[in-house]
Amino acid sequence: MLLRRLAVASASTGAATVLFNRTSLCDDAVDPVQRRNSDPPPPDDETARKLVQRWTEQEERPGYLPPNGNWPAERPTKSDIPFLRAAFDKCGGKDHLREGPRTRECTEVSFKLAVALLGGTLYGHVSDDDDQTSDAETSEGADLMRCVADAGSIDGLCGFAYLLHNGDFVKEDVPRAAKYHEQAATAGYAQSMHELGTMFYLGDGLPENYENAAHWYRQAAERGFSGSMYMLGELLLAGEGTKKDVPSAIGWFAAAGELGHRGARSRIVSAIGDGPGRYYDVAALRVSDWAAVLLG
């Protein structure tokens, strides 16, 4: 279990790049932007070395950080609340969500207002003390997120699932969170696909099932979600929940690495057989910290 949690933690530290980002209603199709239909081919030795060289040069740039694809992509802050609240009221407030007809623009405003009211509660931190919302605002945000989810916004479904999973200003209900994620994932939402994969992988609120984990990680990976690319690579490498396929695992690690995922990049560094080398030094990663996950 510890190694599995380390692998998931490594997946979450990379850029979770979703190749589309728009609020839509559940009965709308989500655009399958640049979706892969097959495993990416593994790089040959020369290509792998060139990848590591490029990644190392990136890491050596002062202030370099991998692409930030954390969810939600847009994070309105406390200072945005007055503007968003005015737009929300203009749309008809909660009556718009409960009774409709719902427009995409107003549903998006509702979700953004919920995110702003929740502050760092939704994604674990705030960037500045001045952005911390009050308990009353956070509670209002949680209630609004529930309304947005019940109105059929897949962003809202994912957001409320997070709150249910963590017990933030709502009663913790992990099985119910899984149902919200499943509804969003079925509509094509990569973030929720990844979350379902992790819940099945860890047995967190759902029965531990590597086959289901591999299914959902693959669905998100095919949509360009680098954390799922990395986790799918791990499952392929170990033959857990899917047929063991080392070349395909390396292909997914390379693809995730190109999107900035540091755990996946470290797998490629290990695969070329030159030892840790300069990449680990410039990425400020200690080999001993990665050994259990990468070399065990």
List the main descriptive attributes of the protein structure presented here.
about 300 residues; mainly alpha; about 60% helix; disordered C terminus
Task: Describe, in plain words, how this protein is organized in 3D.
The protein is mainly alpha-helical and 296 residues long. It contains 15 helices and no strands. It has a domain at 73-121 and 123-167. 60% of the residues lie in helices and 0% in strands. The protein is globular, with a radius of gyration of 20 Å. Mean pLDDT is 80; it is low at 13-33 and 283-296. Helix 7 (154-166) runs antiparallel to helix 8 (174-186) and helix 8 (174-186) crosses helix 9.
Total DSSP helices: 15
Major sheet attributes:
none
Distance, first to last CA = 14 Å
| Overall radius of gyration | 20 Å
Mean pLDDT: 80
Order of helices and strands: HHHHHHHHHHHHHHH
Question: Strand percentage, roughly?
Answer: under 5%
Helix/strand-derived category reads mainly alpha
The residue fraction in helices comes out at 55-70%
Number of strands: 0
Task: Please mark out the parts with pLDDT under 50 across 5 or more consecutive residues, or reply none.
Answer: 13-33, 283-296
The rough form would be described as globular
Topology:
Blueprint: H1 2-13, H2 45-60, H3 81-91, H4 93-99, H5 104-118, H6 135-150, H7 154-166, H8 174-186, H9 190-202, H10 210-222, H11 226-238, H12 246-258, H13 262-271, H14 277-282, H15 287-294
Helix pairs in contact: 1-11, 3-5, 5-6, 6-7, 7-8, 8-9, 9-10, 10-11, 11-12, 12-13
